[in-house]
Amino acid sequence: MPYANPRVTLVDHPLVQHKMGILRQSATPTSQFRTLVRELAHIEAIFATADLETESYEIETPICRTHAKRIAGPKLAIVPILRAGMGMVDGVLDLVPSARVGVLGMQRNEETHEPEPYYEKVPVDVASRDCLVVDPMLATGGSAIAAVKLLRERGVDNIKVMVLVAAPVGLDALLAADDQVHIYTCAIDEGLNDVAYIVPGLGDAGDRIFGTVA
Ligand code: PRP
Ligand code: URA
């Protein structure tokens, strides 16, 4: 379903679509699920970092002196929302190994579906960094909204949220809650069921990454 908003990027590269099909299947085992989450985060991060600033500098090849480019500008912090966001961290770190990692613990209340923050540890210099919030699922949007709000309170200017599956209602809510945030997602699904799970979705991302269900 098309979702037209310049602050939402749908990363629907053919490799992403192929991997998402396997990820969604209930028969996919934990080990493969984990690998796919990491690979998808890696591909998605290429798109989410496409606007990083660069600067020119001189290098010497075996043939002559020439110019090359290197990343410049603000440094990056990856901010996973616990638990499921942890599954995406290494995929981003593979690309940006010098990034710092700050974690936010949020547990969605099963009755109200509201996020309940339980832990926060972000880099001391987070206000001077660009932040990439990572979490596989954007359902009601409550957890991502709470994470973005907390980072704004810590002084962060540039925040991007990377998810694998988003519900339109969650996208609407996050865009309305913060007028600067940019969202990257590998899929935009139909909606939510009566317990606020994404349909068709992939189930409980945290349980599938950590293998905490039978
Ligand atoms: C899941 C998911 C998101 C949140 C999405 O986490 O990883 O953080 O729910 O739902 P929302 O958009 O309605 O807030 P959960 O709270 O189940 O915790 P877990 O990662 O520990 O399993
Ligand atoms: N959290 C999940 O892990 N999956 C959903 O579909 C919604 C919230």
Can you put this structure into words, describing what you see?
It contains six helices and 13 strands. With 214 residues, the protein is of the alpha/beta class. The strands form three sheets. Strands 1, 4, 5, 6, 7, 8, 9, 10 and 11 form a nine-stranded mixed beta sheet that branches. α5 links the parallel β10 and β11. The longest helix has 19 residues. The mean pLDDT is 97. The structure holds 1-O-pyrophosphono-5-O-phosphono-alpha-D-ribofuranose and uracil (URA). 1-O-pyrophosphono-5-O-phosphono-alpha-D-ribofuranose (PRP) binds next to β4, β6, β9, α4 and α6. 1-O-pyrophosphono-5-O-phosphono-alpha-D-ribofuranose binds next to β4, β6, β9, α4 and α6.
What is the fold's blueprint, element by element?
Blueprint: E1 8-10, H1 14-24, H2 30-48, E2 54-60, E3 65-71, E4 76-82, H3 86-93, E5 100-101, E6 103-108, E7 115-121, E8 130-134, E9 137-138, H4 142-153, E10 159-166, H5 168-177, E11 182-188, E12 191-192, E13 198-199, H6 205-210
Parallel strand pairs: 1-11, 4-5, 4-6, 4-8, 8-10, 9-10, 10-11
Antiparallel strand pairs: 2-3, 6-7, 12-13
Bound molecules: 1-O-pyrophosphono-5-O-phosphono-alpha-D-ribofuranose and uracil.
**Biggest sheet, open or closed, and with what strands and sense?**
9 strands, mixed
Q: Compute the number of structural domains.
A: 1
Strand content: 25-35%
Rg, nearest Å: 18 Å
Terminal-residue CA separation: 33 Å
Number of helices: 6
Number of strands: 13
Q: Using the coordinates above, name the CATH class.
A: Alpha Beta
From the spread of the alpha carbons, the general shape counts as globular
Which CATH-level-2 architecture?
3-Layer(aba) Sandwich
- Which hetero ligands occur in this complex? 1-O-pyrophosphono-5-O-phosphono-alpha-D-ribofuranose, uracil
SS-based class? alpha/beta
